[in-house]
Specification:
- The protein is about 20% helix and about 30% strand.
- The protein has four helices and eight strands.
- The protein is α+β, with helices and mostly antiparallel strands.
- It has one domain.
- The model has no long low-confidence stretch (mean pLDDT about 95).
- The termini are close together.
Protein backbone atom coordinates (compact mmCIF):
# COMPACT_ATOMS: atom_id res chain seq x y z
CA UNK A 1 0.00 0.00 0.00
CA UNK A 2 1.29 3.46 -0.81
CA UNK A 3 2.09 5.81 2.06
CA UNK A 4 1.13 9.49 1.92
CA UNK A 5 3.68 12.08 3.04
CA UNK A 6 2.72 15.72 3.52
CA UNK A 7 4.66 18.86 4.33
CA UNK A 8 4.37 22.60 3.95
CA UNK A 9 6.93 24.45 1.94
CA UNK A 10 7.71 28.10 2.62
CA UNK A 11 9.70 30.17 0.16
CA UNK A 12 12.86 31.84 1.44
CA UNK A 13 13.76 33.50 -1.87
CA UNK A 14 11.60 34.81 -4.73
CA UNK A 15 9.84 32.32 -7.00
CA UNK A 16 9.43 32.70 -10.75
CA UNK A 17 7.97 30.52 -13.48
CA UNK A 18 8.81 30.30 -17.17
CA UNK A 19 6.19 28.00 -18.67
CA UNK A 20 6.48 28.08 -22.48
CA UNK A 21 3.42 29.43 -24.28
CA UNK A 22 2.22 29.76 -27.85
CA UNK A 23 0.22 32.96 -27.70
CA UNK A 24 0.16 34.53 -31.13
CA UNK A 25 1.21 38.07 -31.95
CA UNK A 26 -1.57 40.54 -32.55
CA UNK A 27 -1.55 42.22 -35.97
CA UNK A 28 1.24 44.83 -36.02
CA UNK A 29 2.35 44.02 -32.46
CA UNK A 30 6.03 44.61 -31.69
CA UNK A 31 8.15 42.12 -29.75
CA UNK A 32 8.21 44.47 -26.74
CA UNK A 33 4.43 44.93 -26.78
CA UNK A 34 3.96 41.15 -27.09
CA UNK A 35 6.31 40.53 -24.14
CA UNK A 36 4.51 43.10 -21.99
CA UNK A 37 1.10 41.64 -22.87
CA UNK A 38 1.86 37.93 -22.46
CA UNK A 39 4.29 37.62 -19.52
CA UNK A 40 1.58 36.17 -17.24
CA UNK A 41 1.29 33.27 -19.68
CA UNK A 42 4.55 31.99 -18.17
CA UNK A 43 2.59 31.13 -14.99
CA UNK A 44 1.11 27.73 -14.21
CA UNK A 45 -2.49 28.52 -13.29
CA UNK A 46 -5.45 26.35 -12.22
CA UNK A 47 -9.01 26.67 -13.52
CA UNK A 48 -9.75 29.30 -10.86
CA UNK A 49 -6.92 31.59 -11.99
CA UNK A 50 -4.69 30.73 -9.00
CA UNK A 51 -0.95 30.08 -9.39
CA UNK A 52 0.19 26.50 -8.80
CA UNK A 53 3.46 24.59 -8.77
CA UNK A 54 2.95 21.65 -11.12
CA UNK A 55 3.47 18.15 -9.69
CA UNK A 56 6.37 17.61 -12.10
CA UNK A 57 8.26 20.49 -10.47
CA UNK A 58 8.01 18.87 -7.03
CA UNK A 59 8.85 15.41 -8.38
CA UNK A 60 11.87 16.62 -10.36
CA UNK A 61 13.19 18.65 -7.41
CA UNK A 62 12.91 15.59 -5.15
CA UNK A 63 14.70 13.29 -7.61
CA UNK A 64 17.43 15.88 -8.30
CA UNK A 65 17.97 16.38 -4.56
CA UNK A 66 18.26 12.64 -3.94
CA UNK A 67 20.91 12.40 -6.65
CA UNK A 68 22.78 15.49 -5.39
CA UNK A 69 22.79 14.43 -1.72
CA UNK A 70 23.85 10.87 -2.65
CA UNK A 71 22.79 9.42 0.74
CA UNK A 72 23.99 5.84 1.15
CA UNK A 73 21.64 3.03 2.16
CA UNK A 74 23.02 1.37 5.32
CA UNK A 75 24.18 -2.20 4.73
CA UNK A 76 23.99 -1.97 0.93
CA UNK A 77 27.55 -1.07 0.01
CA UNK A 78 27.68 1.93 -2.32
CA UNK A 79 23.93 1.93 -3.06
CA UNK A 80 22.12 5.24 -2.51
CA UNK A 81 18.46 6.20 -2.21
CA UNK A 82 18.45 7.93 -5.61
CA UNK A 83 16.81 5.12 -7.61
CA UNK A 84 14.31 4.49 -4.81
CA UNK A 85 13.21 8.14 -4.88
CA UNK A 86 13.11 8.31 -8.68
CA UNK A 87 10.94 5.20 -9.02
CA UNK A 88 9.19 5.05 -5.67
CA UNK A 89 8.06 8.62 -4.89
CA UNK A 90 5.31 10.36 -6.85
CA UNK A 91 3.62 13.74 -6.76
CA UNK A 92 0.26 13.93 -8.53
CA UNK A 93 -1.34 17.01 -6.97
CA UNK A 94 -0.24 20.55 -7.80
CA UNK A 95 0.86 22.81 -4.96
CA UNK A 96 -1.65 25.63 -4.60
CA UNK A 97 0.01 28.93 -3.73
CA UNK A 98 -3.25 30.79 -3.05
CA UNK A 99 -2.15 33.71 -5.25
CA UNK A 100 -4.25 35.05 -8.11
CA UNK A 101 -2.37 35.25 -11.39
CA UNK A 102 -3.71 38.79 -11.78
CA UNK A 103 -1.95 39.81 -8.53
CA UNK A 104 1.50 38.59 -9.59
CA UNK A 105 4.20 41.16 -10.35
CA UNK A 106 6.74 40.98 -13.17
CA UNK A 107 10.42 41.62 -13.71
CA UNK A 108 12.10 42.52 -16.98
CA UNK A 109 15.65 41.30 -17.54
CA UNK A 110 18.26 41.49 -20.30
CA UNK A 111 18.90 37.78 -20.90
CA UNK A 112 20.50 35.50 -23.50
CA UNK A 113 18.17 35.14 -26.48
CA UNK A 114 18.64 31.36 -26.58
CA UNK A 115 18.45 30.91 -22.78
CA UNK A 116 22.05 29.67 -22.55
CA UNK A 117 24.35 31.44 -20.13
CA UNK A 118 27.33 33.03 -21.85
CA UNK A 119 25.89 32.93 -25.34
CA UNK A 120 26.14 36.04 -27.52
CA UNK A 121 22.90 37.83 -28.29
CA UNK A 122 20.72 39.23 -25.48
CA UNK A 123 17.12 40.41 -25.51
CA UNK A 124 14.66 41.84 -22.99
CA UNK A 125 12.46 39.18 -21.39
CA UNK A 126 9.68 39.59 -18.83
CA UNK A 127 8.75 36.92 -16.31
CA UNK A 128 6.45 36.71 -13.31
CA UNK A 129 8.00 37.01 -9.84
CA UNK A 130 6.46 36.11 -6.48
CA UNK A 131 8.23 37.36 -3.36
CA UNK A 132 6.21 35.54 -0.67
CA UNK A 133 5.00 32.06 -1.44
CA UNK A 134 4.34 28.64 0.01
CA UNK A 135 1.90 25.74 -0.06
CA UNK A 136 1.15 22.20 0.97
CA UNK A 137 2.83 19.25 -0.74
CA UNK A 138 1.53 15.70 -0.90
CA UNK A 139 3.82 12.88 -1.99
CA UNK A 140 2.86 9.26 -2.60
CA UNK A 141 5.59 6.90 -1.40
CA UNK A 142 5.59 3.49 -3.08
CA UNK A 143 9.06 2.44 -1.91
CA UNK A 144 9.06 2.74 1.86
CA UNK A 145 12.84 2.37 2.14
CA UNK A 146 12.98 6.17 1.69
CA UNK A 147 11.12 6.51 5.00
CA UNK A 148 13.90 4.82 6.98
CA UNK A 149 15.41 6.92 9.72
CA UNK A 150 18.40 8.94 8.62
CA UNK A 151 21.60 8.24 10.54
CA UNK A 152 22.54 11.92 10.31
CA UNK A 153 19.36 13.60 11.58
CA UNK A 154 16.91 11.01 13.00
CA UNK A 155 14.38 12.24 10.39
CA UNK A 156 13.01 10.04 7.62
CA UNK A 157 15.54 10.04 4.76
CA UNK A 158 12.89 11.49 2.45
CA UNK A 159 12.56 14.50 4.78
CA UNK A 160 16.30 15.14 4.55
CA UNK A 161 16.07 14.86 0.76
CA UNK A 162 13.16 17.33 0.54
CA UNK A 163 14.96 19.77 2.86
CA UNK A 164 18.08 19.43 0.71
CA UNK A 165 15.94 20.08 -2.34
CA UNK A 166 14.85 23.38 -0.85
CA UNK A 167 18.43 24.40 -0.16
CA UNK A 168 20.33 23.10 -3.20
CA UNK A 169 17.83 22.56 -6.04
CA UNK A 170 14.86 24.90 -5.59
CA UNK A 171 11.81 25.32 -7.80
CA UNK A 172 10.94 27.32 -10.90
CA UNK A 173 12.99 29.62 -13.10
CA UNK A 174 16.50 30.69 -12.03
CA UNK A 175 16.65 28.09 -9.26
CA UNK A 176 19.92 26.95 -7.61
CA UNK A 177 19.99 23.81 -9.78
CA UNK A 178 20.42 26.19 -12.74
CA UNK A 179 22.99 28.48 -11.08
CA UNK A 180 20.35 30.90 -9.76
CA UNK A 181 18.97 31.77 -6.35
CA UNK A 182 15.18 31.90 -6.84
CA UNK A 183 12.87 29.15 -5.65
CA UNK A 184 14.66 28.22 -2.45
CA UNK A 185 12.39 27.03 0.34
CA UNK A 186 12.28 25.40 3.75
CA UNK A 187 9.87 22.68 4.78
CA UNK A 188 7.67 22.48 7.86
CA UNK A 189 5.38 19.86 9.40
CA UNK A 190 6.74 16.81 7.56
CA UNK A 191 4.29 13.99 8.31
CA UNK A 192 4.09 10.35 7.29
CA UNK A 193 0.47 9.13 7.13
CA UNK A 194 0.34 5.32 7.46
Amino acid sequence: MPVIVTFALKGISPYSQSKPHLEEYLPGESHDDYRKRTWRSHLHVDKNGLVIIPPSGIKNMTSEAAKYLNIGIPGRGKATYTKNVEAGVACIKPVELGIKATDVQSETLFLPADGKRGSGKRVWKTYPIIYEWGGDVELIVLDEIVLQTSRATDNPVLQDICEGGGQYKGLGRFRPANNGWYGRFMIENFKVHK
